[in-house]
Amino acid sequence: MPRRSTRSRSRGRAEPTPKKTPTTPKSKKKTAAPAVQEGPSMLPEGAEVMARWPGSSLYFKAKINYVRSDDNEYDVEYENGTVYTIKAKDVYRQQSMVMKKASSRARSKSRGRSPARRKSNKAETTADIVDSPAEKPAEPEVKVSKVSKVEKIEKVKMLKAETPTRVSARIAAKAISDGFSDDESEKVKLAPNPELPDARGKKRGWSFEWVWALVFMLLFPAILVSLHRLCQTGCKLEVPKFSKNVNDYVDKESLMLLIGFCTVLDALSFLPVGAVVNGRRMNGFLSLMILLAAVPALVYFKVPINIVSKKYFTMVTGTVLFSYLTALLSLILSRWGTKSNINAKGNTGNLLVDFFNGREMNPKHLKMDWKLQTLRFSMMTLAVLNVLLVTDNVISVREKVSPALILSATFQVLYAMDALFFEEYFFMSHDAMNTGYGWSLISSYTFFPFIPTLITRFLIENPTSLQWYYLAAIGLMNALGYVIYRSSETQRCEFAKNPNNPSLAHLETLTTAGNKKIIVSGWWGLVRYPNYLGEILMSWSWILPAVGTLGSTALVPYYLPVVTTLMLVVRTHQINQKNKRKYGAAWNSYSEKVRSNIIPKVY
């Protein structure tokens, strides 16, 4: 739907005037109206704006993702998906993009231009007005088709941007469309131009994103199911054999367990305990403690907790089904969502792409934050599965429980507890700020608990004994990884919230051209991504207790640490390129000082 014009509604109506002999009007000098500053208020999140591309004088369409009132800055996302932090002075609403061009030359023959409308005393309040010099020749004219109740418009004056910067051809064309008043029933229609380059200078062409979306939506569930199918026969790396019986994949009891667990999680989210951050109640850690405390009660009342072991595979397939249903429900409910919450990558009109990327950024339905609830489902499922599997094993074998099993399961439970204890930092993550709530995000969180538990189930079925010093060394490795991860991640999130935080005053920083700061000391002075180093150390410590039994044949449980390492290595390369474009010379200086990405002196 075209944007409503900010001009008067009578602009498009002709004013009958008697015919006169054309005379040359006296030239009147027109001065620029000063910009009026209404106040220090910031634009809201989700606003459609024009933002200057860093390092250039070009302005492009963008959407505000986050408002940094203290720094007078915005986090904006351009149409090509790039997110930058931009000063407020370089961001303004699209409505203030254009104005009528002043000229003392030949007047347009458009019926909308009457002699009485020679002057305008209105002052623009959103951007400085720049008048055209009188010496410039008349602007080119555009033919417009006939509209109802209005005679054919022969010529329309081109509109000029208010800012002295260059604008793209698409924005200039939109200015013509906005020049018509609302009472004209037809406006200039702007067809998408595949030859128009985006902010990076790449031409837009045919998109086959739907093909990749379809491939990933079939490939990832197939990998997850294959891993668990292989571990039913020794976890050896070979071609999996699938059953053709539907009942082997869909089980009523497993679905009821999942529905019941999700219902309990949603109910616990309404507990009036915990701090409120960004309008959400931070009670995830308390909810996890309540669930873990319920396990001894289940054992005391002799509830058959071994159902988790028996129905484990169908719970995996049930979770895959739930991921599709949740993404579909979110896509349907997004039709009633607010426009400011729309994800540009998930609002393409292609059903598969929108389903995969998610049409909403942060959906809130039934008084719940769905992204936050998905994180809680992931972490609580990981912790509860490990506790129930180990408890069932303790009841079954009594005194023959493997210390390696206890150690690996404990690492996973502590990881989940840490994520929920610091769950407010989730809102500073890439997933929370820049990723839509689609199948891609939903599946990554809901599938995750069933990958580390491959190690737990393998150690249950293949008990192993390790010397105490091996166990101690593995424990120290996990502790080191946790300390590196948690301390660096806390510094990153607290610094992003408030760079002037007194608790971070001891850290050295480097100021960029955009007046942003980069931490260059502490863990961040050792490697560029210390939080990734911590994650890699922790994920490998989960598998080490089973290495002696896995040998060189049972390779499936290695999937988690290997894939985690490869993904983080690829991500470091991507972020390096992004930061180089974003921070320029400052990032080059930091890279010269800190040469290692993850492992000091190695990579």
Please characterize this protein's 3D structure.
- It is globular, with a radius of gyration of 30 Å.
- Helix 8 (370-397) runs antiparallel to helix 9, helix 8 (370-397) runs parallel beside helix 11 and helix 14 packs antiparallel against helix 16 (559-583).
- The chain has helices spanning 169-178, 209-230, 252-268, 284-300, 307-310, 312-333, 351-357, 370-397, 403-421, 430-434, 439-447, 453-461, 468-497, 530-543, 547-550, 559-583, 585-593; strands at 48-52, 59-68, 73-78, 83-87, 91-93, 98-99, 160-161, 276-277, 280-281, 364-365, 368-369, 509-511, 517-519.
- With 603 residues, the chain is of the alpha+beta class.
Reading the helices and strands in chain order gives: EEEEEEEHHHEEHHHHEEHHHHHHEEHHHH
Shape: globular
Query: Strand arrangement, largest sheet?
Result: 4-3-2-1-5
As residue ranges, the low-confidence spans are: 1-39, 97-205
Overall pLDDT level: 78
Number of strands: 13
Number of helices: 17
Oligomer: single chain
Which bin fits the share of residues in helices?
A: 40-55%
Write the layout of secondary structure elements.
Elements: E1 48-52, E2 59-68, E3 73-78, E4 83-87, E5 91-93, E6 98-99, E7 160-161, H1 169-178, H2 209-230, H3 252-268, E8 276-277, E9 280-281, H4 284-300, H5 307-310, H6 312-333, H7 351-357, E10 364-365, E11 368-369, H8 370-397, H9 403-421, H10 430-434, H11 439-447, H12 453-461, H13 468-497, E12 509-511, E13 517-519, H14 530-543, H15 547-550, H16 559-583, H17 585-593
Antiparallel strand pairs: 1-2, 1-5, 2-3, 3-4, 6-7, 8-9, 10-11, 12-13
Helix pairs in contact: 2-6, 2-7, 2-11, 3-6, 4-8, 4-9, 6-11, 8-9, 8-11, 8-12, 9-12, 9-14, 13-14, 14-16, 16-17
